[in-house]
Write a structure and sequence with these properties.
There is one protein chain. The chain has about 450 residues and is an alpha+beta fold. It is globular and about 60 Å long. About 50% of the residues lie in helices and about 10% in strands. It is built from 16 helices and eleven strands. It comes from Acrobeloides nanus. Its cofactor is heme. This is Cytochrome P450.
Length: about 450
């Protein structure tokens, strides 16, 4: 995409099969998605997603609906997460609770007689379990115990659905729906998608029959049901709540898991960066628990997390927008209903903005004095009103979990011949190939937060 933007300019048209406008310039993206958000905040309606919404004209669910329905969902979600302490102490306590469980699960894999040599394992399941339970607590007010079969089944359904919707066969079905009659994958996609929807609808029914409407809600589902009852807003419904829950669960889990998983890969390929991070952790934290209050004292960690999000480029194609009315951008007339494809990933790999863009180099986010410098060209959570509503949660998760991992463990290649692959698998997200690595304990005593024994303080 970087080559296309250099050849055709910062704004150009592709046919998929309908004409779509690609914007690969940060200034134009800011104009479109922030300054002119009312014009550019629509969503193109997808046949594949419409299967689960009844093909409503303006869609459904917080990610893919538009118009007044979307505004109502976004307002509610922002208000609710703010009430839950998004970015504050309450949210940090919840993240610490599940991060501590994650650290203990990894530590239990390394017996005392293996501290020096470490063990070889794939941490993907434990990582997904940690992040999935954070989302579960926020949405449903409950979490799973390690190894729970329901959690494993639910993850499998999510994975299958994401792989299905990202496949070439489903891309063609989305453009030419009649092809669904000759494509077996379409039927498995529908089966898995409706099973996910039923999971959330059943969960909503349980909450509806057991929640105490006189108490302040402590999770997203309870808060939504209470708002439905009190306001009678026609934009709020149980189906929409189920879709919102699925959107939040998928968006909040898959992107964070993939980012941290890439982080371990890059640390193995760049061991000097891992050592520098651990030196900073030891200097600032020593054996104290990780706290976001110390984040500003850890410029190298902040720079590394920015570089990780840039290079991992988790959403190479950000979710498309649609213009709500005819508009002119950069001298080009864009008709109403045109799909807009924000290509933020092309900016991340533009050598004129980020020299040697394929190298993992945290120092690009530090000044000459070693102070952290935020780049205006880094926007992994999107821009404007359609930016990720969970940005505050995601940033806190990345800092706490990644720092905790490096405070307690070191990561190496399984052996010299088996470094994790840097190749990206095709799909909606830039998913790395699964891998095993050697994990060593850095200390005899695991460093965990003071909140390790109870989640009650987060409630």
């Amino acid at each position: 995409m970087v080559k296309w933007s250099k050849k055709y300019g910062p704004i150009f048209t592709v046919w998929m099969p309908k004409p779509s406008i690609v914007i690969a310039d940060m200034e134009l993206l800011k104009i479109a998605l922030k300054d002119r958000a009312e014009c550019f905040s629509g969503r193109p309606q997808s046949f594949l997603y419409g299967i689960f919404t009844g093909h409503k004209p303006n869609g459904d669910g917080i990610v893919l609906c538009q118009g007044e329905k979307w505004l109502a969902q976004r307002r509610f979600a922002l208000k609710t997460f703010r009430n839950f302490g998004m970015g504050g102490n309450r949210m940090e306590t919840l993240i610490n609770f599940h991060t501590n469980r994650f650290m203990k699960q990894l530590a239990d894999c390394i017996p005392p007689n293996r501290f020096a040599t470490g063990v070889v394992l794939d941490i993907h399941y434990q990582l997904a379990f940690c992040l999935g339970n954070i989302i579960n607590d926020l949405i449903m007010g409950r979490h799973y115990e390690y190894g729970d079969a329901e959690f494993a089944k639910f993850r499998e359904l999510i994975d299958n659905t994401l792989k299905g919707v990202a496949s070439f066969s489903m891309f063609f079905i989305d453009s030419y729906p009649w092809l669904r009659f000759i494509c077996p994958r379409y039927y498995s996609y529908c089966r898995d998608g409706f099973e996910i929807q039923k999971f959330f609808l059943d969960e909503i029914d349980r909450h509806e029959t057991t929640m105490d409407y006189n108490k302040e809600p402590e999770n997203f589902i309870d808060a939504y049901l209470r708002d439905m009852m009190e306001t009678g807003d026609e934009n709020l419904s149980k189906l929409t709540l189920a879709l919102n829950s699925g959107d939040l669960w998928t968006g909040g889990l898959e992107t964070a898991v993939t980012t941290i998983y890439w982080g371990i890969i890059y640390l193995i390929h760049y061991p000097e960066i891992q050592r520098q991070l651990q030196q900073e952790i030891d200097l600032v934290l020593d054996t104290s628990p990780v706290s976001t209050a110390k984040r500003n004292e850890m410029p190298y960690m902040r720079a590394t997390l920015d570089e990780l999000q840039r290079l991992a480029n988790i959403l190479p194609w950000h979710i498309p927008h649609e213009v709500n009315e005819e508009v002119i951008l950069a001298g080009f007339k864009i008709p109403k209903g045109t799909t807009i494809m924000p290509q933020i990933g092309a900016i991340f790999f533009d050598p004129e903005i980020f020299p040697d863009p394929n190298l993992f180099e945290p120092r690009r986010f530090l000044d000459q004095e070693g102070r952290y410098v935020r780049s205006e060209y880094l926007a992994p959570f999107g821009l404007g009103k359609r930016s990720c509503i969970g940005e505050g949660l995601a940033k806190m998760e990345l800092f706490i979990i990644f720092t905790s991992l490096l405070q307690n463990f070191s990561f190496e290649a399984e052996d010299r011949e088996h470094k994790p692959s840097l190749e990206r698998n095709p799909g909606m997200t830039s998913v790395p190939t699964r891998f095993k690595c050697r994990i060593r304990r850095r200390r005899a005593e695991l460093v965990t937060s003071e909140h390790e024994s109870s989640k009650d303080q987060a409630e």
